[in-house]
Design goal:
Elements lengths: L1 E7 L2 E6 L11 E9 L2 H7 L9 E2 L4 E8 L11 E3 L10 H4 L31 E3 L2 H4 L1 E2 L15 H15 L4 E6 L2 H12 L4 E5 L3 H9 L3 E3 L9 E7 L3 H9 L1 E9 L11 H7 L2 E4 L8 H9 L11 E4 L3 H4 L7 E4 L4
Helix pairs in contact: 4-5, 4-9
Amino acid sequence: MRELTYVARHTVEWREAPDPRLQSGQEAIVTPVAATSCDVDSAILAGHGFIDPPFALGHECVARVVDAGDAVTTVAPGDLVVVPWSINCGACDNCRTGLTAHCTAVPHMAMYGAPIGGNWGGLFSDLVRVPWADAMLVPLPADLDPVAMASASDNWSLSWRLVAPHLKARPGARVLVVARGSIGLYVCDIARALGASDVLYVDPDPEHRRIAEGYGARTAETVEPVRHGFDLAVEATGRVDQLALALKCLAPEGICESAGNHFRPGELPLLDMYLTGVTLRVARDNVRAHIPDALDLARSGKVAPERVVSHVLDWEQLPGLLPEKHLKPVFVRADS
C-alpha cells in the first residue's frame, strides 16, 4: 500500500509500505474515503513542527471498514466510521474515565499522523490498522456526509468540546474566538447554535471572517483587549501573544480554552489572570469521548460544518495539493 509521507518543508510524497494485517481479534483494517488536514498539519507542512521528517501524515478521516477481527462487535466490513486521532484501548483506567488521549495501554501520545508514542501510520494512507476497533471506531450515521464530517476525528469534535459544555453551564455566554483555521470557524457555528448571546471572531483572513459572519458571528481583523468583555474565549492560533489577548478579554471567573499548538515560547499575563480569576486549559483533546455528541449536533440541522470545507479534491492529488494553503481541503477516493 501507499502512505502519504511528509519528507521536507512543503513536500509530501507517496511511499510504499507493507499492507497492515490484523494482529488480534479486536482489530480492524480501514481504508480512508474522505480525509482532511488538521489545523496543526499546516504548521507541520510549513516546517514549524518539532518532529523531524520523514513520517506518515494525516489524522482526520472518515473510513470504510475492510476487515475486522472475530472479537469486533460494533462495526463490520463495509461500514463507514470516524477514526479518532489518538490510539486508545477503551479499557484502562484513563480510557474508562474518558481520558482516551492518555491511554496507558500504549506509549504516551500514541496517535496517527506523527511518530509520537510509536509509529501508527497516518490517515492519508491507503490502509490503516485500528488496534481496538470497538473502543476507537464510531459508526458514521447514514444521514451525515463523509466530506462534511471528515474532521470529526479531531477538529469538529474538539470544537464541540471547546464550547458546548461551557454553554450548557453558562447559557447565553459571550464568546470570543481568536483563530486562524477551521477550529475557530467550527466554534463559531457551534456557539451560535447552542445559544451564545454574542460571538466575536478575530482573524486577519477576510475569507475566514466571511464564513464566520455566515454563522452569525461578529468579526474583526484584529482587536485590542476588551476588559471583562467575554465569558469564554477560545484561542486557536498557536501564537502566545494571541492567547494573551484572549486571556485579557475575560470576565471575572471567565474560561479560556487554548486549542493552538504552541511550538514557540512566550509570556502570559499572569497578574491579569490572577486578578480576574480566570481558568485556562491548554489541552490535548480526549476526542473519542466527544465524537458521538458532536455527530448528534451535526445531525440536528442547527449547524453547517460543510461550509468550512474549502475544497473537495481527488485522493490522487494529495502529494501535489496538500502542501498548498487551503482552509479545509477534503481528499476523496474516486471509488468511495
